[in-house]
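Notebook, p. 212. Picked up where the previous page left off. The plan for this session was modest: take the two constructs that came back from the sequencing core last week, fold each one, and keep the raw output in the notebook itself so nobody has to go hunting through shared drives later. Recording the first one now, exactly as returned: residue sequence, then the structure token string.
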Amino acid sequence: MIYRYKQIQKELKFVNEITGLLFVKKYFPNDSEQILSMSVDGEEKSLNNNIPASSQIVDFHSLADYTGARVMAISTTALMLVSAELLFPKVIFSVEHSYSRGFYCVPQDKQQLPDNYINQIIEQMKLIVNENVKFKEEKLSIAEVIKLNKGRFKIFEDVSFDKIRINKINDFTHWFLSPLVPSSSYIKSFNLQSFEDGFILQFLNTTNILKLPKIHKLPKLFKVFRESEKVGEILSIKFVDQLNKKIKNDKERLDTIQLYEALHEKKIGKIADIISQDHVKVIFISGPSSSGKTTFMKRLNIQLKINDIYPINISLDDYFVERVETPKDENGEYDYEHFNALNHKLITEHFNKLLSGESIYLPKFDFENGKSIKSEKKIWMGNKSILLVEGIHGLNPKLLKNIDKTKILRIYVSTLTQLNLNISNRVSTSDTRLLRRMVRDKQFRNYSVEETLKRWPSVRAGEERWIFPFQENADIIFNSALEYEWNVFRPKLEVDLKQMDIASPVKNDAVRLCQLLKLYLPVSDEYIPPTSILREYIGKSYFKY
């Protein structure tokens, strides 16, 4: 057996099975309180589980990696739900969506709660932590799970699993996306901060290992989530089991897809109208990886032309400095996502000329040789022209800081889904983007699913540094999520994820995503219109990329 933790990888002759907890105490005594969970041959497990003698690869996870951070987030969520149910058994608490490195949670019947209910839940959580309550689990069949007769298990009615991992904490029975920490004492820090109709549940994460992260106000982002929730209410699709029921019916399946696509088109048309009325001249379009920026830009282009406005498309990727001038990251690698990887002097010069009525030759960055070259593409702005500029730094106020702000409008594009697996398990927006990227990379960039998974942490790190801190600078936020897209991705990714080599360092991510995809009934891409944002990833788009 090979066991791995951080930079440690060792081989061990294994005769008798042993619990994860005992293994950690024996081989990682100094980190026994930091290690939160393990993956045995790719399957994520609680440390309370046994490591079979036949195991080939065992990975251990702490807050230093995304797997450990997810375990901590979900374990803290479980602790909150247990505490709330003990105190207020007649009130259901729902986990709605992420918010400022925490989860926005809402009581369904707030009128039944005392004014200080949040403080009561916090105190109950502390009490359970101090009692070091064991987080037990057991494997049940689908039939056994359905017999539990709780709405939180409805998601399993139309799917097939051999066994489901069910968590038991005191008398609280539930299912969560990941295994939990072994016991409540592992949850060292948490808080519930009153917010809107509920509260923000805070927990430790990869960038805040010892101290809870500060809550940043995100009113624009929150508004988009609220709009998305209203759409879910209109279509009666808030949870995956409701979506699956519509997918099973031929007519409802087509109606659902068409309605979501129509909502996208309506929103893009409204954005074009806003641009037309504001008389802006530069539109920055930014967002995290695989958020659909390129297709959004192409569809906005069409809507603007309907309004007699003629866009000129510019990519900030063509304004990189020479490779030798590119900043390097902590590993000594060229960091093309760094703000100073852009040639700000040339950007300012070109945009000033264009806004003054002069012409320029667009640069072209030669990635193979790391050189910026002048292209033969000459552009200038007429009276009805507008610049559509795509790039990850489009929301950064330092970009074109000396240009009249009234001429600039910034648009943020991201997948802000309101769809949840059930009342306590949210669908990760970053997982949705990861699936999009895996499908696209496999089909168009000759990267395997494994290669994309390996690159994903560095992509996320770049987003955390250069995109997410500036998302509230956007004048407009476009939600590119399509609630049915996981159903489309399932038949395209399931086999590749299942077949990934057991020794791969991202095998646990593959197993996790494969398990999640199984919760969605598969949908053929024949139903997807050619102008859909999904076509950017699955192919056969009307647009050229």
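Okay, moving on. Second construct, recorded in the same format:
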Amino acid sequence: MAPSAPRPVPTLAGPALTLAEADPGVTEALLFRLALDASPVGVAIVDRELRYVYVNEALARINGIAAADHVGRPVSEVVPDVDQAAVRSMGRVLAGGPAVRDMVVTGATAAEAEGVWLESFEPLAAEGRIVALLAVVQDVTVVRRTQEALERERLGASVLAQISRDVLEHVRPEEIAGVVLPDTLAAIGATWGTLHVLDEASQRLQLLGASGVPEAAVADLGSLPLAARYALSEVARTAETLVVRSRRQLARFAPDAPIKRLVGDGEAALVPLRVPHLAVGVLALGFEAGHLSDERLVAARMLANIASSSIARARAHLAERSAREVLEAVIEQMPLGVAVTDERGGVVSTNSALRRIWGGERRSRSVEEYGLWHGFHPDGRPYADEEWPLARSIRGGEVVVAEEIAIERFDGTRGTIALSSAPVRAADGSAVAAVAVVADVTERRQAEAAREAFLGVLAHELRTPLTSIAGGARLLARQSLDAAVREELRADVESEAERMARVVENLLVLSRVERGLGMAVHDPVLVQRIVGAIVAAEQRIWPGVVFQVDVEPSLPVVRGDDELLGQVLRNLLSNAAKYGGGHVTIGARRDGDEVVLVVADDGPGIDPADRERVFDLFYRSPRIHGRAPGAGIGLFVVRRLVEAMGGEVELASAGGGAAFTIRLAPFEMEPTEETPGR
């Protein structure tokens, strides 16, 4: 036998083993552990000193000793009366020899005076060396004894053995039933057979398969209540075999019991499919009168054991696969990015959120290839391969929590992530894998940076007019000023007060938005009256700018608020005066029932790259930073106020200036008891 590659050490919980908590990778290990614990086949992990490290309940039952009492004890001490050739084979596997498959072992345990087992030994490796051994033990004592009896009676032992082998190739209960039933009838001379399993949720016996049964009877057998007065239901409830030698034995069951019609004048064996102390189904076999011998009954019980073990294995496999699929689906749908590495740091699994955060995917095969991922320290230094949190977790066992890293994505854009990572440990404490969780904090960091910049600009925006007002007030107090100078100072103070009032107005709107307070208004507004008043006020503030007004007569009344619409127009006209070329037009026209307002300037316009962001809070185009002061909240306030009035605002910009278009909805009287709504 050629040496087989050692298997990696699985991560398990239990006596003498370490488990990292709250970890997607470890959750898979937990599922693996649960599958081992529920396995009908004995499983153990033995260290290099041939001492038990882990034993599942099936092997504990075989050895007649509690699972916890195995841990730390040598194999030869726990089962001294078992063939020691098995122990020697273990030693050879641990020393680097080939794996052992299906070794026949005989002897005695605390649970069995004389037993026969099939044992397999596989090496387990960590970091390139064999650290433990996986032992799988299948109790074939009953099978062997039954086979011997069948051989004596020439009842087709070869067919029964083939059934045992065939069912191992299937993992669905329906497929197992399709193998067991036809071959069973041929092997022991039965005329018909059915196989039911118990559905715990509905408490009903569900038919998995039938052979030699008339089609009309199959429908009656399909789903049987566990609590019903049926023979099959009683066997499932009591977990006791029912041998039917004559129809009279079935008289105590319900008249419509499906099994009665099948038995007829013949005989039947109804054998429970059992796991310890519990029936999980029923195998029913029918025979001609006088043909149900003790040997056939033993064979039926053996086949029921084969079926129950195979179905339990199939269910465990399906449950594990289902749990894994659910886990994978949960990880895939998580809003946070997830990556899992192997023991070398190679990335073996990622979810869609991680791929979205990074703008693509790279599968580095080891820590030495982490240069595929471009990250930067706060001082701008690139992350070296070994500096990445995943590398520190897999190599040093470090648990990293929310380390912020500036990144360059695979599509060339930049962002910021918060990366957490932790190792997944083997039984010996070594890190055999690592998992990382990644949050994209780019927008949060950008918002914080914008807010800090805004606070600086805001301080300037408020300090400048306050300084001018305070200085002007001191100068106005001088009696020696002539009338012309005094009037100029007064106008400056008034202008700066207007400027500060506008900043405060916008801040009030911003405050309501951030606190989630609504601003919806439904008052009637005459646009032409508001436009005229606002343009006149702005002309005084911007005497060097030409404001051209083009308002259609007889505009319809629109829904809104005089003050809010005035604030919108002040912000737009002020922007046009600051950033335009000295000529601003404001037009208002009817469009159906709506009123369309347009504020346009003759400035350089707005770059296409900036158009989507001009209405964002705190955003100011890099092109205008040095041209005029501002806090980056005016256009944000414009959009919010227009939306509060039930309208829309959009930007149109070509090379010859910027134009903002506002659509305002017609005013409609709100329904009241005296004025029914439409």
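Notes on construct two before I forget. The chain has 19 helices and 25 strands.
Flagging for discussion at group meeting.
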